[in-house]
């Protein structure tokens, strides 16, 4: 696949409704501090480009968890990773499904459940029929729709508020620009530290996400893969920033109209702020509300399709293929498509579950993803950086990490004693107008108004009740769940590995390890770097050199492209050396190469037994503002979609489905798992990069980020820093030589992704509810079904190209909101002045209280983990693998990394504009109860701003749905790949490609259903989408990231240490996350003051022929709380539960690294000489020794970098030994990845089967199965 569509697909896969609804809602309620999460994400992406992509792309992984098996030499680790990864992705897709449904409910009153079903149905269709190509190109389309809606929102909102200056002034005056909070209290919801480290953990997890791996793998070269990240990283940052701007604009807008929709009960969820604003702004503009809803749905569709595609690949690669007999390509493709449908159903179930959860989409997503994602991240880090971690340590690290983070997350949800950070004061509600219509023939009361200014001061004797016991733990910021899970996984994995016998260095394959010191600080002397890597030599290149690859080949990624290779083995004891991460020989040569070859007919039968085939006027600052305060009354009413809105919205879904159908009927028609899961590894870098960005920037960014900025200030922006710096499960198996570890990581990764998809599903549903009243369940179902369809039928190509489309829709919606919002507020200067005067520009908070929701430290740390998670995310690996060369894979990361930063920044800007907008109209929608969820701030703002512009609300909702669709499709695609690669394939007999693909497609459907369930669950959560997402992601991703860290940089970590690190990390972070959820004594960071509500207007209309009475009441009331009231501090575990959710990922990461190391030494560390340098990376030495490993194996460096290690043509192998041999890799597989007609033209003789050669591959599952044709095995 080409770099651009892959990068766009990767971008929109994660830029779902969570971004479009959750981020603005987060900004609206807690201020702009959320923007700091970009810092950690930025760092994670940098690390991904520098370290992760060069490690993963040459391995050409289809399943992210395949790395786990290769690294830990344990199939159990791979299955665990696949299972957890799929659960995580399904949960995420469920949240993504919930987003547009929530928005549609806000703007149309359309039942949320129907929205969920619609989106899910669309995603399932084009994902299942179009494959990865359909996913990527629909992502590109949805990218356009999504950003169109966002831009329309920002522009119109700014205009409505009175300009940029007025928008930011209002946000600043009302505490939304709370940029800096360096409080070290972990109970603070957002601090710089929790945001940074939380986003860092999440970023790390995204790297190892199945969608990322799938898109990176779809690029042809390593440079293309890097280009994808180069494009997606700024894309993420920009989209998140735009979402933040949306949150600021939303608050300023409702402050200007003086009617907070949430405080005035106009909306029921903070995540509906943006859709409500869209209906308010564009209510008189036909088509604009529809454009917004379309952008929202595009975001969700992109995420869903990506998720479905990724999970479909997982199901096939990890569950079906290894455990089934060889099958035809057609059957394999059908299985993959069916998995898309099944996963879509699961996503719908998750979305329904999410719909019962309160809170912003950001918080829901963060909590869910941290529970599983952070331990998985710890697992991957253990595999990448800790060679001593064994499979036992790896399994324990993940299990303990999920258990701990899950326990804490549960405590956070159910505990009544936790200390929660209160949101910022809402926008005024004094001009809110509630209307109701009553038919009567007797009397009529037309208007009932109550306006009150109430000031209260607490008694000096009153003290807040502090959490006690476990409530102290449950009070920590949800951002810290990922940190906890990551740290727990690394620590526990290390400890268990040492206890159970660490992996010796000589037992580790350097191809699956990375030395951070060698890679990042090669200028440091060897005597300094060597102790840091425990004396281990990460000589990955040496392994490749030994296999005959030179440096030029490695750099260009040509390791896989060989012709006329003859391997003769005469020694009875000789093992065939590993060629790549999964030990496969893939025939991927041009037609003429096969036709012109002279292949010995007597040598080909070796492959027989195991081969597979593989509108308002601008408000003046003085006169009109005074007029607003004295005369204007803002009527809070439900804006309805016009015909233009529905046209824009429906067209978005249709285009996404059309792309899926196109790729289902074109090319190879998605009949092979190679085409369905990784796009035949020929995707260009640009669409892959876009797909990678939108895969992770879903409705969570479009709704959650603005909501976060609206409520808690701009400090969330710092999360971008850590995220930008970081940028898969089969790697763990290669690194730790443990299949159990790979299964563990795969399970955790899938669990994390499912949770994330559930949150993404919830986002657009929440928005649609806010702007149309469309029932949330229906919205969730719509997004899920759409995503499941085009993911299951179109494969990765459909996912990537729909991501590109949805990327356009998403950013169109974001830009529209930013521009219109800024104009409405009164310009850029006014927008930021409002935000600054109201505390939204709270840029810097360097306090060290871990209980503070957002500080620079927790934002940076969490974003760093988030960024690293992004690198190890199955979607990332899948997209990187879809590129033809290492260069193309790098291009994907180079493009996607800035893409992430830009999108997050746009989400932050949306949050600022949202607050300034509501401050300008002086009617906070959340405070005035205009909306019920903070994540509905942006949709509510859109309906308010674009009420006179037909189609604009529809455009925004379309952009929101595009974001969710992109994320869902990417997630489903990734999970499908994981399920196949880690669970099905290794445990089933060889099957045809048809059956394998069918299983992968069925996986998409199943996990789509799970994501729907998660979305319904998320709908019951409180908080912004940012916090929800962060908590879940960090709880899971932190430990998993720690696992990868151990694998890449710790050669002493063995499989036991790796497993223990991940299990312990997830256990600890899960425990803390559970404590945060259930504990009642935790200390929560209060959100910033809302926008004024003095201009909110509540109306009653009664039909009568008799008489009319109008009554009004206005009162100014000042109350002062007793000075004797004392704030209750959390006690006992509530102190732990009060930490910021952003720290969960850090905790999980550190736990995984530490426990994984300890466990490895206890169980017998891996000796340096036992480690394969190809799986290790030294951060100190830039030119790692793994290159020499490849050279020793006769692979040139240019071949390695172009990702051509596995493409062989005319391979003849002679084995004289009666012994079974290892084959080319750790799982002993030879894979023929060539069109059927090429193979049939090969000059072979199926009758000459050497009795000593057949046993080599007997009973071994492979990636591409035999076609159901006569004498196919003999032909091979």
TrEMBL record:
Membrane topology recorded in Swiss-Prot or TrEMBL: Multi-pass membrane protein
Cellular localisation: Cell membrane
A Pfam family it matches: SSF
Compositional bias annotation for Polar residues: 1242-1255
Main location as per UniProt: membrane
Keywords carried by this UniProt record: Cell membrane, Ion transport, Membrane, Sodium, Sodium transport, Transmembrane, Transmembrane helix, Transport
Transmembrane segments: 35-56, 77-98, 110-129, 136-155, 190-208, 228-254, 291-314, 334-354, 360-382, 394-414, 646-665, 685-704, 716-734, 741-766, 778-800, 807-835, 892-918, 955-977, 998-1018, 1024-1046, 1058-1078, 1139-1162
Protein's GO biological process: sodium ion transport
GO CC entries: plasma membrane
Renumbered residue ranges of the record's region Disordered: 590-609, 1242-1276
GO MF annotation terms: symporter activity
Family stated for the protein in its record: Belongs to the sodium:solute symporter (SSF) (TC 2.A.21) family.
Name of this protein: Sodium-dependent multivitamin transporter
């Amino acid at each position: 696949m080409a770099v651009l569509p892959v990068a766009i697909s990767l971008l929109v896969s994660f830029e779902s409704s969570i971004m479009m609804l959750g981020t603005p809602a987060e900004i609206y309620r807690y201020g702009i501090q959320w923007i700091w999460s970009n810092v950690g994400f930025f760092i994670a992406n940098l690390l991904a480009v520098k370290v992760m992509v060069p490690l993963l792309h040459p391995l050409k992984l289809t399943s992210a968890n395949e790395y786990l098996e290769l690294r830990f030499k344990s199939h159990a680790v791979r299955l665990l990773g696949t299972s957890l990864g799929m659960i995580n992705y399904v949960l995420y897709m469920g949240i993504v499904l919930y987003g547009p449904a929530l928005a549609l409910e806000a703007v149309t009153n359309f039942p949320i459940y129907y929205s969920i079903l619609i989106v899910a149905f669309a995603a399932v269709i084009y994902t299942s029929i179009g494959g990865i190509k359909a996913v990527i190109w629909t992502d590109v389309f949805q990218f356009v729709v999504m950003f169109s809606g966002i831009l329309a929102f920002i522009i119109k909102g700014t205009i409505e508020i009175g300009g940029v200056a007025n928008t930011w002034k209002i946000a600043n005056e009302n505490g939304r620009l709370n940029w800096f909070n360096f409080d070290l209290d972990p109970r603070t919801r957002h601090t710089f530290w929790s945001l940074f480290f939380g986003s860092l953990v999440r970023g790390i997890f995204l790297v190892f996400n199945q969608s990322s791996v799938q898109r990176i793998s779809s690029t042809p070269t390593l440079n293309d893969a890097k280009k994808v990240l180069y494009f997606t990283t700024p894309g993420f940052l920009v989209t998140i920033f735009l979402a933040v701007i949306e949150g600021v604009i939303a608050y300023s807008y409702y402050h200007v109209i003086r009617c907070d929709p949430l405080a005035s009960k106009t909306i029921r969820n903070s995540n509906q702020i943006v859709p409500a604003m869209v209906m308010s702004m564009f209510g008189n503009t036909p088509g604009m509300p529809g454009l917004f809803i379309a952008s929202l749905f595009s975001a969700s569709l992109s995420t869903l399709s990506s998720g479905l595609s990724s999970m479909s690949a997982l199901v096939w690669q990890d569950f079906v293929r290894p455990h089934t007999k060889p099958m035809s390509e057609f059957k394999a493709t059908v299985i993959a498509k069916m998995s898309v449908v099944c996963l879509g159903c699961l996503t719908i179930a998750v979305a329904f579950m999410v719909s019962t959860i309160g809170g912003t989409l950001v918080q829901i997503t963060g909590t869910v993803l941290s529970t599983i994602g952070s331990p998985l991240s710890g697992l991957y880090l253990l595999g990448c950086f800790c060679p001593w971690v064994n499979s036992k340590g790896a399994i324990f690290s993940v299990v303990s990490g999920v258990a701990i983070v899950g326990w804490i997350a549960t405590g956070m949800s159910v505990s009544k004693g936790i200390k929660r950070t209160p949101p910022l004061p809402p926008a005024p509600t004094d001009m809110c107008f509630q209307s109701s219509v009553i038919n009567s023939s007797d009397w009529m009361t037309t208007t009932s108004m109550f306006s009150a200014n109430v000031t209260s001061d607490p008694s000096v004797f009153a003290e807040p009740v502090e959490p006690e016991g476990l409530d102290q733990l449950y009070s920590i910021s949800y951002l810290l769940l990922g940190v906890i899970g990551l740290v727990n996984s690394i620590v526990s994995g290390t400890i268990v590995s040492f206890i159970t016998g660490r992996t010796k260095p000589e037992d580790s394959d350097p191809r699956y390890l990375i030395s951070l010191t060698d890679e990042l600080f090669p200028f440091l002397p060897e005597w300094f770097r060597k102790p840091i890597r425990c004396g281990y030599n990460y000589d990955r290149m040496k392994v490749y050199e030994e296999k005959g690859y030179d440096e030029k080949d490695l750099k260009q990624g040509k390791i896989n492209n060989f012709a006329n290779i003859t391997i003769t083995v005469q020694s009875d004891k000789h093992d065939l050396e590993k060629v790549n991460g999964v030990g496969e020989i893939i025939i991927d040569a041009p037609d003429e190469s096969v036709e012109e070859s002279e292949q010995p007919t007597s040598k080909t039968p070796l492959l027989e037994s195991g081969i597979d085939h593989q509108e308002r006027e601008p408000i003046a600052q003085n006169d009109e503002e005074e007029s607003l305060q004295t005369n204007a009354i803002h009527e809070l009413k439900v804006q309805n979609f016009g015909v233009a809105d529905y046209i824009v919205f429906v067209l978005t879904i249709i285009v996404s489905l059309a792309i899926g159908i196109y790729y289902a009927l074109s090319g190879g028609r998605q009949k092979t798992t190679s085409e369905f899961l990784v796009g035949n590894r020929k995707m260009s870098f640009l669409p892959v990069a876009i797909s990678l960005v939108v895969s992770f920037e879903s409705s969570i960014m479009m709704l959650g980020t603005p909501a976060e900025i609206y409520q808690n200030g701009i400090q969330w922006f710092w999360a971008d820093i850590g995220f930008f710096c970081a940028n898969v499960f089969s790697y763990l198996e290669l690194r730790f030589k443990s299949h159990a570890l790979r299964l563990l990581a795969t399970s955790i990764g899938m669990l994390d992704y499912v949770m994330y998809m559930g949150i993404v599903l919830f986002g657009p549903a929440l928005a649609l509810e806010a702007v149309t009243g469309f029932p949330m369940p229906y919205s969730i179902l719509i997004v899920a079904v759409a995503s499941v369809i085009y993911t299951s039928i179109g494969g990765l190509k459909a996912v990537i190209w729909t991501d590109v489309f949805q990327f356009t829709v998403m950013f169109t919606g974001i830009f529209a909101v930013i521009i219109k919002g800024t104009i409405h507020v009164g310009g850029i200067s006014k927008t930021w002045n409002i935000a600054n005067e109201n505390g939204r520009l709270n840029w810097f908070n360097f306090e060290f209280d871990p209980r503070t929701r957002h500080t620079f430290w927790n934002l940076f740390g969490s974003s760093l983990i988030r960024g690293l998670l992004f690198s190890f995310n199955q979607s990332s690996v899948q997209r990187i693998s879809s590129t033809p060369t290492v260069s193309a894979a790098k291009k994907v990361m180079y493009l996607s990394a800035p893409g992430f930063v830009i999108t997050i920044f746009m989400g932050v800007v949306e949050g600022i504009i949202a607050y300034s907008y509501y401050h300008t109209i002086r009617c906070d929608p959340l405070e005035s109860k205009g909306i019920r969820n903070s994540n509905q701030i942006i949709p509510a703002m859109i309906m308010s701003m674009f009420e006179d512009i037909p189609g604009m609300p529809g455009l925004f909702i379309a952009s929101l749905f595009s974001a969710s669709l992109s994320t869902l499709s990417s997630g489903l695609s990734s999970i499908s790949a994981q399920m196949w690669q880690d669970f099905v394939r290794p445990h089933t007999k060889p099957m045809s490609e048809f059956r394998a693909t069918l299983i992968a497609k069925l996986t998409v459907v199943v996990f789509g259903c799970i994501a729907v369930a998660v979305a319904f669950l998320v709908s019951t959560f409180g908080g912004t989408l940012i916090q929800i997402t962060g908590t879940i992601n960090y709880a899971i991703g932190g430990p998993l990231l720690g696992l990868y860290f151990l694998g890449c940089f710790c050669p002493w970590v063995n499989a036991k240490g790796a497993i223990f690190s991940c299990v312990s990390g997830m256990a600890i972070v899960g425990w803390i996350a559970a404590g945060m959820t259930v504990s009642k004594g935790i200390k929560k960071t209060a959100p910033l003051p809302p926008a004024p509500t003095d201009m909110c207007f509540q109306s009653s209309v009664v039909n009568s022929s008799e008489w009319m009475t109008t009554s009004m009441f206005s009162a100014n009331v000042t109350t002062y709380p007793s000075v004797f009231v004392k704030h209750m501090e959390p006690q006992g575990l509530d102190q732990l539960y009060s930490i910021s959710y952003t720290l969960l990922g850090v905790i999980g990461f550190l736990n995984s690294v530490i426990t994984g190391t300890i466990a490895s030494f206890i169980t017998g560390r891996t000796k340096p000489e036992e480690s394969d340098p190809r799986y290790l990376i030294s951060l100190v030495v830039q030119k790692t020794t793994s290159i020499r490993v490849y050279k020793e194996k006769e692979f040139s460096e240019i071949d390695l970098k172009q990702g051509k290690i596995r493409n062989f043509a005319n391979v003849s192998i002679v084995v004289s030994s009666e012994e079974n041999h290892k084959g080319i890799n750790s799982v002993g597989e030879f894979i023929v990845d060539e069109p059927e007609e090429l193979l049939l033209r090969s000059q072979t003789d199926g009758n000459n089967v050497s009795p000593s050669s057949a046993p080599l591959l007997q009973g071994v599952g492979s990636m591409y199965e035999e076609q159901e044709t006569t004498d196919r095995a003999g032909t091979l």
